Amino acid sequence: MNQKYSQNEIISIFFSIGRKPLKNWKQNVKGGQIKRITDEDLKSIVLEIKSNCIENTYLTYPSNSSISLSIHLPYLILFIKNLRKFFSFEIEILDDRNAKRRFRASNYTKKTKITEFMCNLPMKLDVGWNQIQFNLVEFTQKAFKTKYVETISLKVHANCRLRRIFFSNKLYEDDELPDDFKIIDPKEKQKKSFDIHQRRVSFSKKIQRRMKLMIEKKNQIEKENQIQNQNQNQNQNQNQNQNQNQNQNQNQNQNQNQNQNQNQNQNQNQNQNQNQNQNINQNQNQNQNQNQNQNQNQNQNQNQNQNQNQIENQIEN
């Protein structure tokens, strides 16, 4: 959404003074109110968000949830007034793993809670006006061990009064900011008799130690899972090798059986051929014998005939 604008130093996304302070913001109001009023301390117009149920009354930027803010600046600054009631805000960011993650800071959360995509943070506010400073790069690194890329969206819940919300490339001192980015106009500063409290949302040392233990435990679990996966893969490979060996043995046995069957069939065929040849030879011998007998008989008959003829001739003579 803001890619076309320069992101060198400061980008403002809300200012309570102006004709359309909630341009590009989406309002959700159930059982509460969002309206502009004149703050008694600033003597200036601010936006008040109030509700008995903070989850049902809030502002979202940008109004279109399908569009990303695409702001790459690392610091989020909010000028808000503590109304001594429950209050929270949420930031959705994109990291270098292309994962969308959320931070929720609130004055009713007692302990930091971190999950894979969500980080809940306790936030202490002073009475009156506070400047909240949120280091997106540091929080993304410490909470998720990834690198901050850009802010996608921002949600501000009841109960608070808003003066200004902006992103910056660093934390500026009050005298370094442009006049309209200061919570008190320099011309009116001498007339104001209250303090602006700077509240930097940060991890305490105790929380940092707890996070370190959580990360170490998470890494240990990941290592154990890796070892389990490696063992499972090894077992799978062993099973595959065993199955392959079994299949090879089965194939060898099948081939041996096939060869044996082929040899048996060949032997049977040879025996059948031999028998057939023997039968043919026997038949041929029988035929030869029959022919010889026939020839002998014919010769005998011829001899008999000749003898008879000789006898007849003798008689006649």
UniProtKB/TrEMBL annotation:
PANTHER family referenced in this protein's UniProt entry, alphabetically: ORF PROTEIN (PTHR12458)
Keywords of the record: Cell projection, Cilium, Flagellum
Organism classification: Eukaryota, Metamonada, Anaeramoebidae, Anaeramoeba
Domain of life the protein comes from: Eukaryota
Record's protein name: Cilia- and flagella-associated protein
Organism name: Anaeramoeba ignava (Anaerobic marine amoeba)
Keyword Endoplasmic reticulum (UniProt): no
Transmembrane portions of the chain: none
Segments of this protein annotated with the region Disordered: 234-317
Residues covered by the CFA20 domain: 1-183
